[in-house]
Amino acid sequence: MVSRVIPVDPFDLVIFGGTGDLAKRKILPGLYRRFLGGQMPADSRIIGGARADLTDEAYRAMVAAAIDEFVPPDRKNPEVITDFLARISYVSIDATVEGGWEKLKTLVRPGVVRAFYFSVAPALFGDLAEKLHQHGIADTTCRIVVEKPFGRDLASAKALNATLAKYFTEDQIYRIDHYLGKETVQNLMAVRFANILFEPLWKAEYVDHVQITVAETVGVNGRGAYYDTSGAMRDMIQNHMMQLLCLIAMEPPYHFDPAAVRDEKLKVIRALDAVKPSDIVRGQYLAGGGEGGYVEHSENPNSKTESYLALKVSVSNWRWKGTPFYLRTGKRLRARTSEIAITFKEPPHSIFDETSGWKENVLVIRLQPNEGMDLLVMIKEPGPGGMRLTQVPLDMSFADALGEDAEDVPDAYERLIMDVIRGNQTLFMRGDEVEAAWAWTDPIIQGWEARGHKPQGYDPGSSGPEDALMLMHRDGRRWREIKG
Prior knowledge:
By secondary structure, the chain is of the alpha/beta class. It folds into 2 domains: 11-147, 3-Layer(aba) Sandwich (Rossmann fold); 180-404 and 435-473, Dihydrodipicolinate Reductase, domain 2 (2-Layer Sandwich), CATH 3.30.360. It is 34% helix and 19% strand. The protein is built from 15 helices and 15 strands. It has helices spanning 21-36, 56-70, 78-85, 101-107, 125-134, 154-165, 183-193, 224-227, 231-249, 258-270, 294-298, 398-402, 412-422, 431-451, 466-473, and strands at 11-16, 45-50, 88-92, 113-118, 143-146, 173-175, 207-215, 280-285, 308-313, 325-330, 337-344, 362-368, 372-380, 389-397, 456-458. A 9-stranded mixed beta sheet has the order 14-13-12-11-7-10-9-8-15, with helices on both faces. Strands 3-2-1-4-5-6 form a 6-stranded parallel beta sheet, sandwiched between helices. Helix 9 (231-249) crosses helix 14.
């Protein structure tokens, strides 16, 4: 199989926060990989912007170090790295003061795609937008990329939207969620809408329930102060997992374009029922394994912030009424894994007796690790002794299916940045979508805060709080095992 790399138009990409952790870990190494893959035109330019007083040479040295640390050895080509670094420059700039903006104006070229990546705290979005327009650097053709968190509640999300709307139209704003750039997440749409095999069964009549799991083995080490203002609901459920739910539950769009896809996702969010307190399980990891518990890292011994959250969610529309969606996410769990599991119902009539060993059909979409899909189906167990059934996976691992081409599959940030340059907003959240997500999320958070609810402790390396097991058991179901 030969992968097809389609170059984008020449561009100038300005990365505000160009010396930050995200730029070094993801953005700059990702751009190098796209340059190596032939997708980034040779006459494109990358401009790093931050408050640090650096020369172009010093910044290029920092970028080279980031490539050395975060790019696999077999993807490092010294000649290509040198060529890539020649396209990078730097400007010392501060969103809140005047210095550096006129220099930036001389660096950004007319006649190419111009994009500005706001890899900074949301509090600076408005200042950056104002300065770009005040100095005549941005116009109606440029694009901006903004990172999460996009607000921490409905009021702040509306305020951010209103601030950006003073200077940019909605079709210029790219709210990035890296989960939507994952190959498997996009393949979910292909599996649903490009195969007659699944879509007729993709509804409450045939689907028993859906599980969405995002489990991490790491804690909040070094991020305790931030995480104590966020928690699992704001950090994972409201954005990443909400987007996964939307892609599973959405109706087929009339066309694969940004407006149509995002219209259907918005309908799903607006169809979500309020979540009952009995359908919420919050947890907080305890000390263990030689590490402190959540409260030690949060620096607040009385913290009620959840590091684990499980929800039972209902979508009230014709397609999904009666089919529950179970969402769970947590830190310091048994294994690092992200997956979506669609469990189908029993056949209306079974010709096999209760001793046959029948199990449900399950479509498992693996986001990490080892991206791919499994379809668990029943076959006859080999050998004599009657009709005994066993469950086997029809496995599609991207690495196996694509072979060497799998190495060329862009990671999430690479793909999404290239989509910004193309002007394709399909995989980016729209302003009304963000606000609808917060409108559903806020009452849940306000509810447990009003009740003074304290999260249940759970052991690190476990699958989470005991109450989360009961959330499924009382419905006659069980969580899939968390394993990497």
